[in-house]
Specification:
The chain is α+β, with helices and mostly antiparallel strands. It has one domain: Yope Regulator, Chain: A, CATH 3.30.1460. The chain has three helices and six strands, in the order αββββαββα. The chain has a six-stranded antiparallel β-sheet. Strand 5 and strand 6 form a beta hairpin. Helix 2 crosses helix 3.
């Protein structure tokens, strides 16, 4: 299956769910949800791999904040099923990654994946507040 075909599967599904997805210049699918920009990153070499990301949701301003963000990301990842929160350069990203027998099988867990992603981000933010007040 080509990257374009995979993007079509994801884009068609998101459209049916009420989103307005776009395919970006890299061939990945982007969409907005509650003010945030999300992506489904597509791996043409591994079409059974599904990766939903919320990139750059927290900008890191200095080395001290980077240390706190790394700790908060670790706690958020540990506390949230399936989701990962991680520092990438001077930003924090969150993702949900899964393998499916067929690329279209993600549809059955998309809503729960979005929920896990949002929970992980919320947990990260709560942990950052706690670390800043400590």
């Amino acid at each position: 299956m080509t990257k374009g075909e995979l993007a079509g599967i994801y884009s068609d599904f998101l459209t049916r769910q009420g989103f307005r997805p776009e395919i970006d210049k890299d061939g990945d699918v982007k969409f907005y949800f509650e003010g945030g920009l999300y992506y489904i990153l597509i791996s043409e070499k591994d079409p059974e791999f599904f990766r939903l990301v919320y990139p750059n949701f927290w900008e890191i301003e200095n080395d001290q904040e980077k240390m706190k963000a790394t700790i908060a990301a670790s706690f958020a990842t540990a506390d949230t099923k399936v989701a990962k929160v991680f520092v990438l350069r001077d930003n924090v990203w969150a993702s949900v990654e899964s393998f499916f027998e067929s690329p279209d099988h993600f549809m059955g867990v998309f809503k729960r994946s979005m929920s896990a992603l949002r929970t992980a981000v919320s947990t990260f933010r709560d942990n950052m507040k706690e670390l800043s007040n400590a």
